[in-house]
Amino acid sequence: MTSTFAVIGDPIDHSLSPNIHNAAFHSLNLDSTYIAYKIPRGELASGIEALKSIKIAGFNVTIPHKIEIMKYLDATDETSSVIGAVNTVSNNNGVLKGYNTDMDGFLNPIKRKNLVIEDSQALILGAGGAARAIITGMVKEKVGKITIVNRTLKNANDLVQFTKKIGGNADAISLQETTKLISEYKFIINTTSLGFRNEPSPIPTEIIDSNSIVYDIVYKPVNTDLIMKAKKNGATVIYGYEMLLAQAERAFEIWHKVKAPYNAMKKALLGGV
Fold first, then answer.
1. Which of 6, 64, 91, 102 could form a disulfide with 59 if both were Cys (CB 3.0 to 4.6 A apart)?
2. Under 8 Å between Cβ of 200 and 206
3. Is 271 exposed, middle or buried (0-12, 13-18, 19+ CB in 10 A)?
4. Active-site annotation holder among 66, 97, 186, 266
């Protein structure tokens, strides 16, 4: 019998997950299919019941349900409990267990490039849900210090407290202060959506150089303004699509207990399938 997987959220039309996972199923000859299933805000309870009724094998969770979904789960893994959000759910005979693959998704491209987080300084742009997962990963890898920049200073300070609570060292600064401090940071990580609509880089890029590692989690366009300028200045860059692929890879392995076909998934994401 064909196993069905899904991504749930709203909006969901532009999700790249069905392409990525269906390419993986095809590559490994798995009798599985992956669909996008729109569940508007306020309709999550009935949406989950509908998924259970079709015996969904597993599903990904995107905006706006990553936090609320936790109320409907029977169990969560340690990472998602720390982060306070779930983006992947397995269904084992009606038992729903939640995971957060954003942390591994963020860390894996760094590890693939043999870059070292331990004792480094990191500048995090943004203070939303993605930033929480990324900071959890950075603290796990023993980052030296995290500095958070956000338009709303209260949200940045909340994230500083979260970082300290999980054993990290962090502070918050204003956008204006970043200009003269950028050169102090080994990692510069954009966790905001700025760049998605081809907006200019959220920070000045003149001081970014070959000692900088610039990671932009925006995956469309592939070359955001921040990435293009960082590359031009000789920085090491990590693209948003690398995180997207790595978190999908981790979700696939949770569901199927086999190694994900990374190259097939990458080809589906970047074109050619």
1. 6
2. no
3. exposed
4. 66
**Is 66 known to be catalytic?**
yes
Spatial separation of the C-alpha atoms in residues 19 and 101, rounded to whole Å: 18
Residues of the chain with pLDDT under 70: 272-273
Domains along the sequence of the chain with CATH: 3-100+245-270 (3.40.50.10860), 103-238 (3.40.50.720)
The overall average pLDDT reported for the chain is 94
Determine contact, residues 8/54, Cβ cutoff 8 Å: no
